[in-house]
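Thought: the user asked what Winged helix-turn-helix transcriptional regulator looks like in 3D. I have the sequence; next I should run the structure tool and report back without guessing.
Action: structure_tool
Action Input:
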Amino acid sequence: MNDTPAWLSPAEQHAWRAFVRLQQKFWPMLERDLQAHKLSGADFEILVALTDTPDGRRQFQDLAGTIEWEQSRLSHQIARMIKRGLVAREECAEDGRRAFVAITPAGRERIEAAAPHHVATVRRLVIDALKPDELATFARLSNRILEQLDDVPPRPSSRSSRR
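Observation:
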């Protein structure tokens, strides 16, 4: 059995490093925009998932699945957001073991203030940089990689795992 890795060709290495650098530059820019509205990227992700429902609430497990977070990470983040008044925990009347996370009026106000700036940043940094056919290719390639990632079996949970 050959344990030698299949090293990246120069073209593959260039593509991979460009992708890594893109992420390293892009995410901090988005985070800075959100921080101007007193939101973290994690806050924004949760608030978006909540505002995607008509009543602004989701069962805890559904929310964890939607944003693909481990339950413990989500619990800690929700606790921080409750303290800041962005979300509330609601008990499930039908099943006392289940709970809902609901956006509060303050949380809705915060995301409504941040969203236009967030969209403008995404448009300026990504959408406007691509021609329509390039955008379609970008979406197709991103979805192909996501499908590959979705096929990877989950690793066993550990307390130190971070996404």
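Thought: the tool returned a structure. Summarizing for the user.
Final Answer: Structure for Winged helix-turn-helix transcriptional regulator predicted. Strands lie at 57-59, 87-91, 99-103. Helices lie at 10-35, 41-51, 60-67, 71-83, 105-125, 132-150.
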